[in-house]
Amino acid sequence: MSRIHSIDAFRAVTMFLMIFVNDIEEMPNTPAWLHHAGEKADALGLADTIFPAFLFIVGLSIPFAFQNRLNRGVDHQIPWRIITRSLSLVFIGFFHANMETYNEALAALPKTVWESVLTIGFFLVFLDYNKETSKMRRWVLQGLGIILIMTMSLLYKSTDPGQSWLHLTWWGILGLIGWAYLVCALIYYYSGGYLWVQAAAWLFFMFFNIDYNYGWLNFLAPIQKYVWLSGDGAMQAFTMAGVFVSVLYMRLTAARDVKLLWIGMILMSLILCNLGFIVRYLGGGISKAHDSPSWVLICTAISLLVYALFIYLVDFKHKYNWFAIVKPAGTSTFTCYLVPFIFYPAYQMSNIGYPDFLSQGTGGLIKGMVFALVMVWITGLLQRVNIKLKI
Fold first, then answer.
1. What are phi and psi of 158, to 5 degrees?
2. What pLDDT, in 10s, does the model give residues 284-297?
3. How many other β-carbons are positioned within 10 Å of the β-carbon of residue 198?
4. What is the tens place of the pLDDT at every residue in 74-133?
5. 102 pairs with which residues across the strands?
6. Cβ(325)–Cβ(364) under 8 Å?
7. CA distance 295 to 292
8. DSSP state, 391?
């Protein structure tokens, strides 16, 4: 099965927006609706919808990726692949979370240097080495990457009281993706891809999230302590929604009845959106910071509706070329995510400034858009010279 361009386009736009909203975070004189809502606010900004969309896309990719492996006759490797990919994401996410508490005053290296060297180590370890690369060269480069990561680990100092070294604060964005992928990919694989199982798992995690936040479903309490990898169920709910939609897409495409898919996705979106506002009214409000059920339901509804549009534009109207400018972000997403972790430290070390009007308001928004495009462009250049990360 070839790549599903609607997923690539959706992923590319989402990755572009993720870089954009991260770059303009806390930028003064910019519209509040572009940013994350405050921790105590009952609100939803554009930035609050990006991570849910990305998790939804992770779920969308699972059935198609597994089908490709099945077609190549390597399906027996899938469980190991799930575990290694998940733990790799968790590993990198753990370091990214610790970046937030790096103590430059006590550490031997400035944070910019430490962050750059660490990211280079990740590049060397997770580079997608082509078949022309000799085993010796690959081992040497990956070994160098491991040495760099280990050295940066030894040099790390923390600002957290009572903690002087690397420690678990939270899993980081990549870590949360890794745990969600692990749970949902295993569910899909060991269930044989049955549609009703994916639907049941999606509903379970949505109800689990409600129970975790409000205690409305106390009958789930006995199993909560055994499902720790799910956290409060929010990340898995987003991901299983994507898995369910992809399986539905595959089934209805095979039956040549794709119109039902659009109708179904729009109906599900409307139902979830209404449920989200009902739950918001009953208590808790919309909060990404607290993984509130209303945030989960409404963001899932948004992802469903947006992906339905991508299916229409890309898979049926064949307008994939509309998204050519951000295409590398959809095909080399992991690389695109890590490129800013090299750019930002390099920029800070260069002491090159930019005019004040580019740090706020309209000028800042334009700078953020250009920056995101440059990160995608660099990713495309790296891809052309066979520098692409793979986990």
1. -105, 150
2. 789 998 899 999 99
3. 26
4. 777 889 999 999 999 999 999 999 999 999 999 999 999 999 999 999 999 999 998 888
5. 158
6. no
7. 5
8. -
